[in-house]
Prior knowledge:
single chain
Amino acid sequence: xxxxxSLLSVFEHDPDDSQAFEALAAAARQAPPDLRASRFxxxxxLLATRGRPDAVVHLIDVELAATDDKAKQADLxxxxxxxxxxxxxxxxxxxxxxxxxxxxRKNDAMAIEALEELNVAEENWQKFTAKYVQEAAGSTxxxxxxxxxxxxxxxxxxFAPAAPEAEHYLRRALEIDxxxxxxxxxxxxxxxxxxxxxxxxxxxxxxxxxxxxxxEKVAALIALSDLGRGPLAxxxxxxxxxxxxLAIDPAHPRALRFVTDTxxxxxxxxxxxxxxxxxxxxxxxxxxxxxxxxxxxxxxxxNDLDQAEEYFRRIRKIDQSHPAAxxxxxxxxxxxxETGKLMTMLKSAEKTAQTAGxxxxxxxxxxxxxxxAELAEAQxxxxxxxxxxxQHLRQDPTSVQARSSLARLYRRTEKWxxxxxxxxxxxxxxxxxxxxxKVSRLFEVAEIYRDRxxxxxxxxxxxxxxLKIDPDNQRAGDELAGKFRALGRWNDLIxxxxxxxxxxxxxxxxxxxxxxxxxxxxxxxxGNFANAIKPLERIAELTPTDTDAINRLKEIYxxxxxxxxxxxxxxxxxx
Length: 575
């Protein structure tokens, strides 16, 4: 749905546009009260200067329905009553409006005064009317005579609308001054109420030729078009009226829409372009909608990319990141083999979109940063692709595509530290419950430190990080032990092997193997037989028939004169 300012702009240009008027009610309800009040007031003021009090009343009714503020309602009803009385000459409706004001705001001075003036005017209108007619008949001043006949007619319209004098004096005023807009306005309303459609059509035709201003001529032709499609049932006459509108106002929305729709239906695309080009010339500034229509027709229907580019260039001056313009330039630059220019344009559009707070990915479109990255990769420019993917990742930290692409490009360009930073960030983003995922990524980190950067310390730290979150991880324990073994870090190796041997899920035969290596390290690497006792005792406990462990224990107990332990061991062996 269009927003309120856009709809009011259409209504200002064409107060008889029923589609815009129907959409106004919903837009008014959704708009903020301050915006609604200011925009409606500005539009009413503009339409009043153009001699359209009927449209002013329509707008007041829309705003009344949209507001719950009693004071605001009273103000609007007061304004409505003034217009109904002074401009539309509808005394019963004016009475009702002023009465409604007093219901909302008792003792409202302006409403009370207006009602009193209506009562006085109703008592004296015939006397004043006779005076107007008498003075008009004797006047030699055409302007004065016209005004007096109009005043006389207005009195009849207000207080005796069915009397023939009302139409007579209005027509008399138009005979003297065919350009008089007020007389023509009231006469048209009278004919419409009486459903005298043929007479109304003749009046509107005359107004289209003789009205004083272009706005009045356009309004008459629009009304004639509606009449032709309605009571007169003369579509050809209605179409001619709209075409005449464009001769006066090439940018009139409804007339332009009719002409372009008709041309498009007939496949007359040059005709569509010509109509919009004429409309553009009639405006002070470029209109994005018209530029877009011309550009799209030239591109999609006439396949004239070079001429279309002129209009899409003007669109980008208004909106650098306009989606349709970007789509066009994707085709345009690709056809010319100028993907470098396309990348430059997309970068500029991306900056503009970020400043404007747009996120194209939210609407289901591909992010510009992704497109730039893919273009860079297609050009075999990994550095630019990396920057583009990094930019996209800043916009959307959850992007799987950006992370996988960056990982691939970092490996390709051997940017191992950047890859490690990316992987560590991924690990940090995982929750504490995602142990398996964290462990998997940490193994990849360890692999890079080991095979690419040759940083043994970081390899060891990474394995320790795995064991911290998954103490029973056999692979981490084995690889950490292997690293300590290769580095000759025997104390660290003993600590790892001991920890592994104490794990709950280790089979006995594996546990014995680990304990035996611990005992060997203590005795062979450090000559520390005392520390070798514990793992050997544990082996003997697990496998009482393990002669190697038992013999070594006997030897150590004997050397250390630990007779009690030796006796216990021999006793167990005898049993």
